[in-house]
Amino acid sequence: MSGSGLSEGGNGQLDPRHSSTTEPPGIAVPPGGAEPEAAREEVFEEAGEPRFFEDPKKIVQTALVVLLLVAAIYFLLPALIGVEDGIAELGRADPVWIGVALAFSVAMFVSYVALFKGVVGERIRLRWRESYEITMAGLAATRLFSAGGAGGIVLTYWALRKAGMPQKQSACRMVAFLVLLYAVYMLALVLTGILLRTGVLPGPAPAGLTVVPAGFGGAVIVIFGLIALVPGDLERRFSEASQETFTGRTMRRMATVPSTFASGTRTAFAFIREPSRGGLAVAGAVGFWATNIAILWASFEAFGVEVPIAVLVQGFFVGMLANLIPLPGGVGGVDAGMIGSFLLFDLPGVAESKVIAAVFLYRLIAFWLPLLPGMVAFFQLRGTVSRWERDRPAVASHADPGDSGPLAASQPITSESKV
Predict the structure, then answer these.
(1) 148 φψ region: left (φ > 0), alpha (ψ -120 to 50), beta (else)
(2) How crowded is residue 187: how many other Cβ atoms within 10 Å of its Cβ?
């Protein structure tokens, strides 16, 4: 795949290698050779901090509200569904298996950072520490603000822009990141659902928890396959066709969204097709979900509950669909969804209270426990962004006047070889 459809909006391609010891981490590096002045300005265009992070006091206040909601729901939910001893069961968890779950939690965040670094690493220089700060701060934003990960998306986009990545490339890479992450999700829904329903994998297989989710996952995959067919230069085509009319300018702006989604989706597909290029990103995406499921497995084991692996995977992913409910971090929604999915599987000999306790333990370890380091990472990220902004003028002064950014790469990467 090559040409303008894969050029991420026509901005300069950025070299991932450290070609200069004077460059501050996080600054984007375009290829050698001059680019239009507009492209140069876009790299350094100011990106405003997300509004929900402008006041640190509001972050703390929101965190306290969310924690109160968590406490209320975790105590009220068992009573609402008639299993009031679910919380009491938590006190009987095996500490060894809790330790195993915590170890998998560390591996989960390593995988998430690897996914992020693998996706953006071709276009921008970020150290592992900086990638950690961005991803952990994004996870905190996901838990505290909005549903479906919107808060984390906004914060990560802001960080990439501050790091020097041009606007269109930032959007494209964010789409590629999400497509890779959720491609694993949808594929798991399809494969596990089909294999359970057909009896290839052992375990209960109600149609509502196997066939229906598999159909949903398949539909999402088809939709993004079709999105990938949208021309990457759609915006330019509208611009050339009707630049002078109001309708033409409106259509051009509207074309930016499908064009960006198409470019990002093709970038994600290219990572999958080319292991030498996208191995870190793909491994991070698979590892993130695999370690999530491993935490849930260890949580069930902590209460002496054996769940068939296929049921564990399918119940996890079906329950996670409740993350689309517009609640802060999916508070209560995901918990209820996951509990409901495992109860509907009707596992023989498994008490409802143990299912509730296992899901609560999983959510506490995988979802809520990282909230504190995520908030710390956000404040660290603000310091890192300030350092990037201080160092940027000094780095720019070393650049050749013909360069299109802070520093020119020693060997350019073109749209023919890199997406």
Answers:
(1) left
(2) 16
CA dist 62 and 50 (Å) reads 15
> pLDDT at position 45, please?
46
Question: Per-residue pLDDT tens for 358-390?
Answer: 998 998 899 888 888 888 898 899 889 988 888
Q: Which two tokens stand for residue 388?
A: 């990037």
pTM, two decimals, is 0.77
Residue type, 405: G
Compute the C-alpha angle 69/133/395, nearest 5°. 145
Separation CA 170–CA 178 (nearest Å): 12
Check if the beta carbon of residue 414 is closer than 8 Å to that of residue 13. yes
Other beta carbons less than 10 A from residue 88's beta carbon: 11
Q: Give the CA angle between residues 143, 285, 101 to the nearest 5°.
A: 65
Helix, strand, coil percent values for the chain (each to nearest 5): 70, 0, 30
Which pairs with CB-CB distance under 8 Å and at least 24 residues apart come from 392-399? 392/24, 392/27, 392/44, 392/164, 394/22, 395/22, 395/23, 395/24, 395/27, 398/20, 398/22
- Pick the closest to residue 43 from 91, 2, 11 (CA basis): 11
For 165: left if phi > 0, alpha if psi spans -120 to 50, otherwise beta; the answer is beta
Q: Are 406 and 164 in contact (CB under 8 A)?
A: yes
Q: What confidence category does residue 400 fall into, taking pLDDT thresholds of 50, 70 and 90? A: very low
Domain ranges for the chain: 4-397
Angle between helices 352-363 and 56-80 (to 10 degrees): 170
DSSP H helices in 121-233 = 128-144, 150-162, 167-197, 207-227
Q: Which residues contact 373 (CB under 8 A, 6 or more apart)?
A: 136
**pLDDT the model gives residue 121:** 82
